[in-house]
Design a protein that fits this description.
Length: 161
């Protein structure tokens, strides 16, 4: 892998980046790779104290601080928690993101994950990694990527019983 390769961490919630990928991303950044961190959801349901807009603002600031501290580029997709399902608009959005980042490596969560937000993001990300190299996908803003990126999946923190 060349030193100017691009790494995309396609995580689901802002804290998933640090929980699942931080050490790996630090390794890539220290080796001078360009790193994008994509957070799909706003984190709007994670607080028992703050209402949606308050916790979303807090989580957005935390995500940006984390990206700035690492030296990565943050992409906030701003979906409400639990609303992304396996459907065509989601697939097209991930294809556009993959075209834009043109990654050599994608780190995303495991498909077989107990939290449906995690599995509902992982599945299209895995499929788009292949399809983003196809030339004639309609409704995407970017040119196809040059080759199919390698995909890594960290172990899920939770296991179904």
């Amino acid at each position: 892998m060349s030193r100017e390769s691009t790494i995309r961490s396609g995580t689901v919630h802002q804290d998933d980046i640090k929980v699942f990928n931080a050490e790996t991303l630090i390794h890539y950044l220290k080796a001078s790779h360009l790193v994008y961190m994509a957070a799909v959801f706003t984190g709007n349901v994670v607080s028992k104290i703050h209402i949606d807009p308050e916790i979303e603002a807090i989580r957005a600031v935390e995500a940006q601080r984390g990206a700035d501290r690492l030296g990565a580029k943050l992409i906030m997709m701003c979906h409400k928690d639990s609303v992304v399902w396996l459907e065509k608009p989601t697939w097209k959005e991930y294809a556009s993101l993959t075209h834009c980042a043109n990654p050599d490596v994608i780190i995303t969560l495991c498909r077989d994950n107990f939290v449906h937000d995690h599995s509902n993001v992982s599945e299209p990300v895995n499929r788009v990694a292949i399809w983003a190299s196809v030339a004639n996908i309609s409704s995407t803003k970017f040119s196809p990527i040059d080759f199919i990126p390698t995909i890594f999946h960290p172990e899920p923190a939770e296991r179904p019983v």
